Amino acid sequence: MSSGTLEEGQVRAMFDRIAGVYDVMNSVMTAGLHHRWRERAVDLARVGPGSRALDVATGTGDLAIALAARGADVVGSDFSEGMLERARTKNAEVRWEQANALALPYEDATFDAATVGFGARNFSDLRAGLAEMARVVRPGGRIVVLEITTPTKPPLSTFFSLWFDRIVPLLGRATGEDQAYTYLPSSVKRFPGPGELGAELAGVGLQDVRWILTAGGIIALHSGTVA
Q: Does 177 map to a domain?
């Protein structure tokens, strides 16, 4: 089995291991811009005081915390307890809950919005994960997916390949986590492009599906409304 197609249990264990270096690596790999991208995702989620929001595959919780900063009542869920432990140290207002994105333990139409930031590519079944997000959001509510995507035009495509194929694994090696930061570029490469992901979102019943490419085409923000 290749490093880009780990089994679910292996992915969970890997994220448990890297929880301590995850935030630092995110800032290094994105030059600190990941916070700005999460704010744009929150804008697309259209939440505010009185809203209920779910952040799936929340990791160390930055997107959930950004949602809460808008006044929403937020649940941050992840299958990695190691990641959730880090999230709990950052914010006590968000409810941090261990949950599998493919079988969310929430009733239908529970939330006004569901988001996932840099986690959808780790779903072992993308369609099932997106369908679960749509299921737990009320009609008229919002789904937002923030994810790395592969640019197709040089010079950015050349830089992207160099950065993710060579530099990121070297950074991972410096942290002692070769597997995790070899898995990352592999998971990005096999993830659907913007148009394909848009079709997946429409396929689980979302309306008005749109996407924005930013950071020169390296970051995609998809959004849609639950029918």
A: no
